Amino acid sequence: xxxxxxxxxxxxxxxxxxxxxxxxxxxxxxxxxxxxxxxxxxxxxxxxxxxxxxxxxxxxxxxxxxxxxxxxxxxxxxxxxxxxxxxxxxxxxxxxxxxxxxxxxxxxxxxxxxxxxxxxxxxxxxxxxxxxxxxxxxxxxxxxxxxxxxxxxxxxxxxxxxxxxxxxxxxxxxxxxxxxxxxxxxxxxxxxxxxxxxxxxxxxxxxxxxxxxxxxxxxxxxxxxxxx
Length: 228
Prior knowledge:
Structural class: mainly alpha
Number of helices: 10
Low-confidence stretches: none
Number of domains: 1
Oligomer: single chain
């Protein structure tokens, strides 16, 4: 019960970003809030509302596609073919409509039009930390504190041995990898795709941290685990 209360408190801290009126014009804010809602609504075998909310997020911002793809992949991993097919169908419909959109836009592009700077920046860990820090309420912390807080949140998701914990770790770690590869410094608002719910992992960080300390300070060889 204590962890659940702490998790809800951290969710409120993250979702309160939606009360910042300066961010109201950003698509990523609304898409990120919808993805957090879709995450919370999802249950194995009960995924209809989650699918519908994720579809709304995808209609707002294409950066929601990794969420949809991961949901589908994990559904197939659980051998839930019906759910996996539903998420796959959503991704397929989106890609078709995106292709149609690009085709229409291409008809209005002229050779004389200026080109913008590319998104492939390969900024590494600094890209991940800056995107999350600047686009969440972590922006009120000193810069050196942002990295440890994000890593503790990731540790918490990994330590939460549930389907939700696995999904959260893969989702936020996957977005972190994308932020390390793509995005200019002025694209920091992309971090709002993950900001609303990412800090919930902090509620489960303490057990994971204590286990790491225990393993790091244990004398003698670590116990061996054998695959069946």
